[in-house]
Design brief:
Histone H3 K4-specific methyltransferase SET7/9 N-terminal domain; six-stranded mixed β-sheet; globular; 416 residues; Rossmann fold; 16 strands
């Protein structure tokens, strides 16, 4: 495949003029190395060559390959239906990740971040030069080691969360963690400390409790607390990139939620306005998360949204546009759970004498998920029945909403 054929592929992309400019930039950098064009259609065999590749999620890479991976100078285009649609990264790659010097541009060509990247995470601002100086190479190695240490610390924290701790996770006080499974992944987010809308009291605690219980049944859990818009989108992008075909995926969000029209949005902590247009720009649309999991071909996706509270722009609850969230659409293999039904408020506690640090939905869910040999269908139905009964005991209506398109049986904890 010659370079003019590669150029033709780039022109077929959306916004061809802007992508053509970046192609020519990469082409110029590539010409300095005199790399030949990659041959054939099997990218796993491409090495020491320059090529263009379309990923399974429709994103594209144009640049240098080595041993079947993105290695060297290149440009990565976000073309899929995700939060970075139209964005691109121009710079250095190692083992299919942004690593080294690079620049992230948004869809309008504005610089988002420029500097040093490690494993696709932006870690330090720096001037992008044509060649990496020895001093900067040492700095990149230092940052890579620091990033590896950070990930190790996160893993140790997740392990700590899975250990018996009556104050933090009462549902797992007598349960030994199962071995982590390569195909069980979870992203858990808890947002309490909102800047311009009402702060919450136990969303972070709910997230911690969910995370520790999922870890105890073998999930590889990413726990994130009090995320801004940028941090939340980055966490979702990173998690989506980790999901592989056949994975069992869990997404849990506790915080403020928004219903605008027929769509539901999850609010980051720095949401700045209650205008519909700005909320749509700054918040995270739930359907996009579900679409991402479908695009990644997850075998089973369970999304639990504990955000059905009163309008946060008026009170201290966890939703806007009236109480509750709008009915959602689950794709095949997906189940979506809202902690309360349409028009209902989800309870944080059962009266002033209730000292439990978790909301009603979370405390019931973690107890049910730890029961062995119960399918997810049975777990969720038990949760719904118990939550409804407990809420009714204090004169309140709360019936968790379930949207189920799951085929087959899935278990949190299966024992022979």
């Amino acid at each position: 495949m010659g370079r003019w054929q590669l150029l033709f592929q780039v022109i077929q992309m959306k916004k061809p003029l802007s992508y053509l400019i970046f192609f020519l930039m990469v082409e110029a950098a590539c010409a300095q190395t005199n790399l030949p064009a990659c041959q054939g259609t099997d990218t796993s065999k491409w090495s020491n060559c320059f090529g263009a590749s379309t990923l399974s999620n429709r994103n594209k890479y144009v640049g240098e390959f080595k041993d079947g991976e993105f290695n060297g100078q290149g440009t990565f285009f976000y073309l899929a239906n995700d939060y970075w649609k139209g964005d691109r990264y121009v710079g250095e790659f190692k083992a299919n990740k942004f690593s080294g010097l690079g620049t992230h541009y948004d869809a309008n060509g504005t610089v988002v971040n420029q500097g040093i990247w490690v494993h696709s995470n932006f870690v330090s601002s720096a001037t992008v030069q044509q060649a990496t100086s020895p001093t900067l190479e040492i700095e990149i190695l230092r940052l890579e080691k620091a990033e590896a240490k950070r990930k190790q610390n996160e893993a140790e924290e997740q392990l700590r969360l899975s250990q018996p701790n009556a104050q933090l996770t009462p549902a797992v006080t007598s349960i030994s963690p199962l071995p982590l499974s390569a195909n069980r992944r979870a992203l858990v987010i808890g947002n309490d400390t909102y800047k311009t809308v009402g702060k919450l009291e136990n969303a972070r605690q709910d997230a911690r409790t969910i995370a520790s219980n999922l870890t105890s049944v073998g999930y590889q859990v990413t726990l994130k607390l009090d995320l801004t818009e940028k941090e939340m989108k980055a966490a979702l992008r990173t998690f989506s990139e980790q999901v592989q075909g056949g994975d069992e995926v869990m997404f849990f969000f506790a915080g403020h939620g928004v219903q605008l029209g027929a769509a539901n949005y999850l609010l980051p902590t720095d949401i700045a306005s209650d205008s519909e247009a700005q909320v749509k720009d700054e918040a995270i649309q739930l359907q996009r998360i579900l679409d991402d999991m479908s695009d990644r071909k997850a075998k089973f996706t369970l999304a639990m949204i504990d955000a059905c509270r009163d309008n946060p722009f008026k009170t201290a609850g966890r939703s806007i546009g009236g109480r509750g969230l709008a009915p959602t659409t689950a794709a095949t293999g997906q189940m979506v759970i809202f902690s309360a039904g349409t028009g209902q408020q989800a309870l944080d506690r059962l009266g002033n004498s209730d000292k439990n640090k978790n909301g009603l939905f979370t405390r019931v869910f973690v107890q049910e998920m730890q029961k062995p040999n119960q399918s997810i269908d049975r777990v969720i139905k038990n949760v719904r029945n118990q939550v409804a009964a407990m809420a009714k005991s204090v004169g309140h209506d709360q019936v968790p909403a379930i949207y189920d398109q799951v085929l087959g049986d899935f278990y949190f904890k299966a024992e022979k």
